[in-house]
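Morning run. Coffee first, then this:
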Amino acid sequence: MRALVMGAGGFIGHHLVKRLKSEGYWVRGVDLKTPEFEPSVADEFIIGDLREPGFCLEITRGAVDEIYQLAADMGGAGYIFTGDHDAMIMHNSATINLNILEACRVHGIKRIFYSSSACVYPAANQQDPKNPNCIESSAYPAEPDSEYGWEKLFSERLYQAYQRNFGISVRIARFHNIFGPLGTFRGGKEKAPAALCRKVATAENGGTIEIWGDGRQSRSFLYIDEAIEGVRLLMQSEFSGPVNIGSEEMLTIEELAGMIIGISGKDLAIKHIQGPQGVRGRNSDNRLIYEKLSWAPTRPLVEGIEKTYHWIEKQVERNGVD
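And here it is:
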């Protein structure tokens, strides 16, 4: 089997390439950059801009059995929710998806995975941090909390339209806060688990770390290996989705920070400051994916956080933080 992974220089894409290679796939990786922390194991890695239609036609030419489309302009709350990057987030990601689907149509590629996001869910359904509603059917009437979410929802419909009109077999997953080693933990695009691990790793014992908001906003977080397993099961199935891939183990951001501090063994205080927070509550609803694929996370959150913290701690010790 021959697979094309777009966004192969990113966190999830890099892990996916490794998984596909372990299953015996020939893999072509594509991105604007190579992976940050270790070389890609892709058989072929092409650097290029998926916003260019000609480039998309070039990389999809030849025998390709499956495409995994994870490329997007994205980041954590500090990138998505400030409003400063809205135009480029929407333009860049939508352009990539338009180009890729048209290239698939031209070359007759019939199987593609698209990584959507829990950010498609209505903000009004996520105001109670103890009881958010993120069941797949709740995405409509639409009211995402960010332009990033609006673009993801548009692109879901774009993929579904190409499936109806051109016979391309589409699989769509809505990711909920995927984390783990080899992900960015600095620079402004990192997500909450990595950011908190970095803050704790760089703090002096007896010191303080900062959290945006009151810390009572709730989330669930899914370890990368679990997410990749869900992707592979979805791609091998006859179910198109969209479907949640996430954890139902919800906790507050302050509880997450406390978990990481406990893993570190340090004595640290938490200081609350102003900053972008997103919705008050978000949690994956896994009833549909369990019904269709018999998939559910198999490990508690703390195991993945422990691995991630120690990996980030080593990076900080070796290289510091810019």
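The chain is about 40% helix and 15% strand. Good start to the day.
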